[in-house]
């Protein structure tokens, strides 16, 4: 008599699936990919369709059943059954890299979870407190990632001791912005400015960037990546790193500049999955980017400069220079204290964040407000100090933008005579001055611009660059009106609103005789 289905003995594959399902957690992530969380914890999360899971499953079957013959077929059967079980369970977990956040109904973060990366611990940062807990099922672990050290519990809210291990910054205001930037790196999914460290050879800019990265993302890639020209490859690397560091760049192309803008403020990528006909692979990232290079005008495009913190560091003198071993040892000793200070400051800032309302907000407003409350929460600093310090950064952005744009320099030259210039795009391209009997310095500047290889070749190209330079020119008081036509040609009007004040004749002293 045939056995009923209830009494039929289980196959090896069915028994293995039952045990794996009981001991672990099967779920789908935000990209509808099946995963397994070993031991029902977040310490090790593996994609079911990956080589890593295949190796784990082979070891499990060999250890449990001492089965070697026909193992390839059993692995595929068990994997297929586990994918089905994951789909039927309906369990869902959003997976992140190193950091994740939980918001309230108003969009304010009420908890930030940082994955230490040791497979056991995570840091939970809440308004007013932080603690060490078990790592939840919320993180993907990539091969290049290394464990972070555990923080030291104390009450200080300052990372000032870090300054002695970095490059020499221009002033205290610049350092305050850097401190706020470092702590803000622990708040994910907020568009952040690109940190651009420039300086001469031997200024320690690479070491400074590496130290900043090490405080958040311990990785074998923390030494920095070279220039990456492929936008999709850049997105793929950003998806697997909490911070993207590009080291020792000489120039940044237009396409790379656009890609970096998208990554820093939030970007998505959709492409066909490999070895499929029509399946899509999606990627959404919002990552901070740190760039190092020698030229101070490494980033030239105005829209990218608006998203940049340009910092020029000084060359380290020979009397202050230390060996790499000494610096690494000092940093390793200081790191647990620094992490505790970061978590103390950030927990206070999260408590203060919902109540802060600022009158003026520059670009990247969310990061600006976050940095304001971070400085309010620091020992010995205030939010108003950050506002004043960041204004100096904005002034430097403008200086670099003017130095990098020949069109902006031309507009400043044309308005320098009378405060106003009017004409067509062709006249602007020829730099037709208001008064032809101009001073020699104006003539020299005009020749420099017209003979420069980077000067726009056609009036049409110049018009496009003028549109891009509008915001920069307005920041120095030059208004651009190019929206109306005269005699079939676009008529351009440049007005320097600060010209009358800067050219006001000096008052003569009163005659006392």
Summarize the model shown.
The protein has 16 helices and 16 strands. It is of the alpha+beta class and 513 residues long.
Describe the structure.
The chain is an alpha+beta fold. 40% of the residues lie in helices and 17% in strands. It has 16 helices and 16 strands. It has helices at 12-23, 51-65, 71-89, 172-184, 205-214, 231-239, 254-265, 302-305, 324-352, 365-377, 383-404, 406-414, 425-429, 440-450, 459-475, 499-502; strands at residues 25-28, 34-37, 45-47, 99-103, 109-115, 121-126, 129-134, 194-199, 244-246, 267-272, 280-285, 289-293, 308-313, 420-424, 478-486, 489-496. It has a four-stranded antiparallel sheet with strand order 4-5-6-7. Strand 15 (478-486) and strand 16 form a beta hairpin. Helix 10 crosses helix 11. The longest helix has 29 residues, at 324-352. It is elongated. 32% of the residues are buried.
Instruction: Return Rg in Å.
Output: 29 Å
What's the helical proportion of residues?
25-40%
Low-confidence stretches: none
Q: Strand order of the main beta sheet, please?
A: 4-5-6-7
**Proportion in β-strands:** 15-25%
| Helix vs. strand class | alpha+beta
Quick one: biggest sheet? 4 strands, antiparallel
Which assembly state applies to the chains in this document?
single chain
How many beta-strand segments? 16
Mean pLDDT: 86
Number of helices: 16
Shape call: elongated
* Cα end-to-end separation: 135 Å
Topology:
Elements: H1 12-23, E1 25-28, E2 34-37, E3 45-47, H2 51-65, H3 71-89, E4 99-103, E5 109-115, E6 121-126, E7 129-134, H4 172-184, E8 194-199, H5 205-214, H6 231-239, E9 244-246, H7 254-265, E10 267-272, E11 280-285, E12 289-293, H8 302-305, E13 308-313, H9 324-352, H10 365-377, H11 383-404, H12 406-414, E14 420-424, H13 425-429, H14 440-450, H15 459-475, E15 478-486, E16 489-496, H16 499-502
Parallel strand pairs: 8-12, 8-13, 9-12
Antiparallel strand pairs: 1-2, 2-3, 4-5, 5-6, 6-7, 10-11, 14-16, 15-16
Helix pairs in contact: 1-3, 2-3, 4-10, 4-11, 6-7, 9-10, 10-11, 12-14, 12-15
């Amino acid at each position: 008599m045939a056995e009923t289905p209830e009494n039929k003995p289980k196959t090896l594959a069915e028994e293995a699936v039952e045990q794996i399902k009981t001991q672990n957690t099967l779920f789908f992530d935000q990209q509808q990919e099946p995963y397994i969380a070993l031991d029902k914890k977040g310490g090790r999360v593996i994609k079911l369709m990956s080589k890593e899971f295949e190796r784990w499953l082979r070891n499990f079957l060999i250890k449990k059943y001492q089965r070697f013959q026909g193992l390839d077929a059993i692995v595929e059967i068990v994997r297929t059954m586990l994918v089905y079980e994951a789909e039927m369970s309906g369990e869902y977990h959003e997976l992140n890299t190193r950091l994740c956040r939980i918001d309230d109904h108003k969009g304010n973060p009420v908890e930030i979870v940082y994955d230490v990366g040791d497979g056991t611990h995570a840091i939970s940062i809440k308004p007013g407190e932080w603690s060490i807990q078990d790592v939840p099922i919320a993180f993907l672990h990539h091969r290049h990632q290394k464990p972070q050290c555990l923080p030291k519990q104390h009450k200080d809210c300052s990372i000032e001791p870090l300054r002695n291990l970095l490059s020499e910054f221009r002033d205290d205001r610049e350092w305050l912005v850097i401190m706020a930037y470092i702590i803000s790196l622990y708040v994910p999914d907020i568009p952040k400015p690109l940190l651009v460290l420039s300086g001469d050879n031997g200024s320690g800019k690479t070491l400074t960037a590496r130290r900043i990265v090490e405080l958040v993302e311990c990785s074998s890639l923390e030494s920095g990546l070279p220039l990456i020209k492929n936008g999709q490859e850049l997105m793929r690397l950003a998806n697997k790193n909490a911070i993207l560091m590009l080291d020792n760049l000489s120039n940044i192309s237009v396409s790379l500049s656009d890609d970096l803008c998208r990554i820093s403020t939030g970007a998505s990528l959709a492409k066909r999955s490999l070895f499929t006909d029509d399946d899509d692979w999606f990627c959404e990232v919002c990552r901070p980017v740190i760039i190092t290079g020698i030229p101070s005008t490494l980033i030239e495009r105005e829209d990218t400069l608006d998203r940049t913190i340009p910092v020029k560091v000084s060359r380290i003198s020979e009397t202050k220079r230390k060996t790499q071993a000494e610096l690494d040892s000092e940093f390793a000793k200081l790191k647990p204290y620094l992490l505790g200070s970061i978590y103390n400051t950030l927990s206070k800032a999260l408590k203060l964040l919902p109540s802060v309302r600022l009158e003026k907000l520059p670009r990247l407003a969310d990061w600006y407000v976050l940095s304001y409350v971070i400085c309010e929460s620091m020992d010995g600093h205030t939010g108003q100090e950050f506002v004043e310090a960041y204004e100096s950064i904005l002034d430097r952005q403008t200086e670099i933008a003017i130095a990098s744009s020949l069109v902006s320099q031309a507009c400043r030259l044309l308005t320098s005579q009378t405060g106003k210039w009017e004409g067509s795009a062709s006249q602007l391209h020829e730099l037709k001055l208001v008064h032809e009997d101009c001073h020699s310095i104006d003539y020299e500047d005009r020749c420099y611009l017209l003979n420069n290889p980077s000067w726009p070749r056609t009036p049409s190209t110049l018009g496009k660059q003028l549109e891009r330079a509008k915001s920069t020119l307005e920041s120095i008081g030059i208004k651009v009106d190019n929206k109306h036509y005269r005699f079939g040609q676009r008529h351009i009007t440049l007005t320097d609103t600060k010209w009358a004040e800067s050219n006001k004749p000096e008052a003569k002293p009163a005659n006392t005789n």
